[in-house]
Design goal:
Elements: H1 2-5, H2 8-61, H3 73-82, H4 87-119, H5 127-156, H6 162-177, H7 181-184, E1 191-193, H8 198-210, E2 216-220, E3 231-234, E4 241-245, H9 246-251, H10 254-268, H11 273-300, H12 314-351, H13 354-367, H14 376-380, H15 388-395
Parallel strand pairs: 2-4
Antiparallel strand pairs: 1-2, 3-4
Helix pairs in contact: 2-4, 2-12, 4-5, 6-11, 8-10, 10-12, 10-13, 13-15
């Protein structure tokens, strides 16, 4: 069936594009293994010592800040949160560790995120634009991580049951985070309301039929960076927004756009409580594992640690998290692929138009260079969507 949909030339181009990406998946895992082995083996002690020297030098040079009006309240507040001095070395240690980790992946990120995408016509982004987006992603990843680790260790230095408190706050955050989804992608792309007309009217009628309330339909300006077609629902309740990128409006007809929106609408009616409960329990479980690691490292005295809740334990925590992700990803991926197939069926019931839905999937595969028959290990590793072949067979 796939051979009848894609020409041999198209399939050859898709596989020429995808095969290096599959190899990069394995390369990323091997590099992660090497980086963490190096950090745990020889990196923790000298990096922590260097962080201590740098912060001590900073304190000597800018000691007057601790007595300056208004400004002095900041270090005093941080001292209280941390439970004493030493937070500067801990934060610097964590930031440098994260930056070193990102630096190890920079060559692969740059090649596959910029050069490879441009070579196959998937990216229209300039080097400057790519660099700016990459810098934003570094800050977005680094700042919350440093703040979370700082608060977590500061609380752990005071309370033995800190993991219950952070787990409860984190569970609330998981529920609340969905309401701010519409604003996250705006860090990278401009969004404007979809103009009145046939498409907006058709989407509004379809959502009325699906019994889904929404705030607005937005167009995400992505063509300046990529030719990929994309649509998604962002937010929850009063912030729910339907987002279509400009590439989708360019490539698909109105019925095909409705097929895409119908699929995304299927996710709105999913029973999410079980997944949210599982995420909450998983978060609590992992935080408790962190507590056990904090105790273990302090008891064994690894890397010179003498007290519980030492920042030098965090590289070990990151390794455990990486291993847990490798183990859990195949399971979560299988559940995700099942939900995607159910969303396809919801869209078919909503639109009643099987031929259009099928044509939409084929167009998406062609434009986005989606491999119709990827290697099994790639799918099992944690692919969130079923291969196009499987989706087409499910609706045939």
């Amino acid at each position: 069936m796939i051979d009848a949909i894609f020409s041999p030339e198209a399939l050859a181009e898709i596989r020429a594009y995808k095969d290096p990406l599959y190899a990069s998946r394995l390369a990323y895992e091997l590099i992660s293994l090497g980086v963490w082995a190096l950090v745990l083996g020889v990196g923790v002690v000298p990096l922590y010592a260097w962080s201590g020297r740098m912060t001590a030098r900073f304190d000597r040079r800018f000691s007057s800040l601790r007595s300056a009006p208004i400004v002095r309240t900041v270090p005093r507040a941080l001292d209280r949160i941390w439970g004493g001095p030493g937070w500067g070395a801990a934060v610097l240690f964590l930031i440098v560790l994260e930056q070193a980790n990102m630096l190890a992946f920079l060559p692969l990120d740059f090649y596959f995120g910029f050069i490879h995408e441009r070579n196959f016509g998937m990216s229209t982004q300039s080097l400057g634009s790519y660099g700016w987006d990459y810098s934003k992603s570094v800050v977005i990843a680094m700042v919350p991580l440093a703040a979370l680790a700082f608060g977590m260790l500061g609380l752990a230095r005071r309370l033995s049951k800190w993991w219950l408190i952070i787990g409860g706050v984190g569970a609330f955050g998981l529920l609340f985070s969905a309401t701010i989804d519409p604003y996250r992608s705006q860090v990278y792309f401009d969004q404007v309301p979809l103009p009145p007309g046939e498409v907006r009217e058709a989407i509004t009628a379809l959502m009325r039929k699906a019994d889904i309330d929404f705030k607005d339909v937005l167009v995400e300006k992505t063509l300046s960076k990529t030719v990929r077609v994309q649509a998604y629902f962002a937010g929850k309740g009063p912030t729910r927004t339907i987002v279509l990128n400009d590439a989708l409006l360019k490539e698909l007809t109105t019925p095909e756009i409705l097929a895409v929106v119908g699929h995304e609408a299927g996710h709105v009616h999913e029973r999410r409580w079980l997944g949210q409960l599982g995420s909450t329990l998983g978060l609590l479980g992992f935080l408790y594992v962190i507590e056990l690691l904090l105790r273990l490292v302090a008891r064994r005295g690894w890397w010179g640690v003498k007290e519980r809740a030492d920042v030098r334990t965090l590289p070990l925590v990151f390794v455990v998290f990486w291993i847990a992700t490798l183990v859990i990803s195949p399971v979560s991926g299988a559940f995700s692929r099942h939900r995607e197939l159910e969303a396809d069926q919801f869209a078919l019931r909503l639109t009643g138009d099987v031929p259009t839905f099928r044509q939409m999937l084929i167009k998406l595969a062609r434009v986005n260079k989606m491999d119709p028959d990827p290697p099994a290990w790639i799918v099992l590793k944690g692919w969130s969507h079923p291969p196009i072949r499987e989706r087409l067979e499910a609706i045939r």
